[in-house]
């Protein structure tokens, strides 16, 4: 599978506000094992710069705008702009990503595995080597 947007339901109205919902194995294509969020990332900083061996993620910009530049093992590069809390981004394993944030951005991540540093590919050259193995 490739990275793709997920459209969450948007329950409510302009006068009441909205609720969006994520459910295991429903609109989230895996069982969530971990949730984390990032915030106060300066606008001039690029985060990410890694891929994962097994981890799958769904990312939501619950506030602000977050831009993902992704690259898959075929070398396809795609830009995804998360600019609404009803929009998610599914990222399968084996995807290199660089991430930029607006000053007010809060990134919420639903993750398929608990944290382990052993799941990270932090050297781009090692990501390219993964290509040869597949
Ligand atoms: P990292 O995933 O590299 O952040 P980003 O992709 O946003 O640049 O994580 C940054 C640091 O936080 C790294 O030292 C690992 C640590 N960390 C945890 O301890 N647990 C976690 O669940 C996550 C996501 C990160």
TrEMBL record:
It comes from the Bacteria. InterPro entries: QdtA_cupin_dom (IPR008894), RmlC-like_jellyroll (IPR014710), RmlC_Cupin_sf (IPR011051). One of its GO terms (molecular function) is isomerase activity. Keywords: Isomerase. Residues 5-131 form the Sugar 3,4-ketoisomerase QdtA cupin domain. SUPFAM superfamilies: RmlC-like cupins (SSF51182). The keyword Isomerase applies. This is dTDP-6-deoxy-3,4-keto-hexulose isomerase. It comes from Chryseobacterium aquaticum.
């Amino acid at each position: 599978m490739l990275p793709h947007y997920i459209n969450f339901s948007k329950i409510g109205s302009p006068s009441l506000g909205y609720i969006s919902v994520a459910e295991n194995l429903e609109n989230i294509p895996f069982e969530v094992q971990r949730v984390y969020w990032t915030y106060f990332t300066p606008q001039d900083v690029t985060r990410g710069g890694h891929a994962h061996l097994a981890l799958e993620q769904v990312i939501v910009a619950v506030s602000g705008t977050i831009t993902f530049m992704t690259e898959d093992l075929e070398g396809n590069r795609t830009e995804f702009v998360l600019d609404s809390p009803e929009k998610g981004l599914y990222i399968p394993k084996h995807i290199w990503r660089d991430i930029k944030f607006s000053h007010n951005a809060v990134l919420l991540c639903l993750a398929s595995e608990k944290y382990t540093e052993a799941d990270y590919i932090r050297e781009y050259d090692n990501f390219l080597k993964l290509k040869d193995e597949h």
